[in-house]
């Protein structure tokens, strides 16, 4: 099996991430967000990791693992405020995409997410993981359902109609 590795993204990945931003499958999945790579790749706040996935040494995709409560863009703030009793107050939110079209649909995304989940749930006290696919992204949603994520319902983030998905640490450990 091909070797999958996750490494920290750096400013040296700027051109790569900008190219991936233009890939049709990435535009379709994330049409409205500006990731401001030129500034974000230069800082390492402790509430997030920005990771490049490499398969046999070739970069193919990106993941961000962030604390939704501490994130300074307050992306999740309205959802968290609307769900004050949800354990997502101690959680991580993950964004993921494969930038290289010829690397889609070969299991790499599943392995990337599984590796991220192992990292997340190795941190004591983390209750679960949030995802926010576009409601229209049925293939990604099917993948997340297969991994055990449950659908908490619709939510509008900016201009995007999304679904909020949740995987609890308890469900993950019973997989
Ligand atoms: C979603 C994604 C990370 C999954 O990684 P992957 O390596 O392609 O998926 P895997 O091979 O591990 O698993 C296959 C499943 O992934 C999903 N998938 C495959 N290609 C996909 C694509 N172009 N877009 C969305 N989901 C896709 C499907 O559920 C597929 O199962 P299916 O063939 O039965 O429909 C990847 O397809 C991708 O980056 N898609 C475009 C960006 C995106 O949708 N990101 C998620 C935003 S929430």
Summed up, what is this model?
With 175 residues, this protein is an alpha+beta fold.
Structure overview:
- There is one protein chain.
- The protein is an alpha+beta fold.
- The protein has a single domain, classed as Gcn5-related N-acetyltransferase (GNAT) (Aminopeptidase), CATH 3.40.630.30.
- 30% of the residues lie in helices and 29% in strands.
- The chain is built from seven helices and seven strands, in the order βαααββαβαβαββα.
- A seven-stranded mixed beta sheet has the order 1-2-3-4-5-7-6.
- β2 (48-55) and β3 (58-66) form a beta hairpin.
- The relative contact order is 0.16.
- The mean pLDDT is 97.
- Bound molecules: coenzyme A (COA).
- Coenzyme A is lined by residues 25-26, 29, 96-98, 104-110, 133, 137, 139-140, 142-143.
């Amino acid at each position: 099996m091909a070797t999958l590795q996750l490494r920290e993204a750096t400013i040296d990945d700027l051109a790569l991430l900008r190219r991936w931003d233009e890939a049709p499958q990435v535009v379709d999945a994330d049409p409205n967000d500006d990731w401001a790579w030129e500034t974000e790749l230069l800082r390492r706040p402790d509430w997030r990791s920005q990771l490049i996935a490499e398969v046999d040494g070739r970069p193919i995709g990106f993941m961000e693992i962030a604390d939704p409560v501490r994130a300074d863009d307050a992306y999740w703030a309205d959802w968290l405020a609307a769900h004050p009793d949800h354990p997502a107050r101690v959680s991580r939110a993950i964004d993921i995409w494969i930038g290289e079209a010829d690397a889609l649909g070969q299991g790499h995304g599943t392995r990337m997410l599984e590796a991220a989940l192992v990292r997340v749930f190795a941190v004591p006290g983390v209750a679960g993981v949030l995802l926010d696919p576009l409601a229209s992204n049925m293939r990604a949603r099917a993948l997340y359902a297969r991994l055990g994520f449950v659908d908490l319902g619709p939510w509008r983030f900016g201009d995007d109609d999304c679904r909020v998905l949740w995987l609890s640490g308890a469900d993950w450990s019973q997989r």
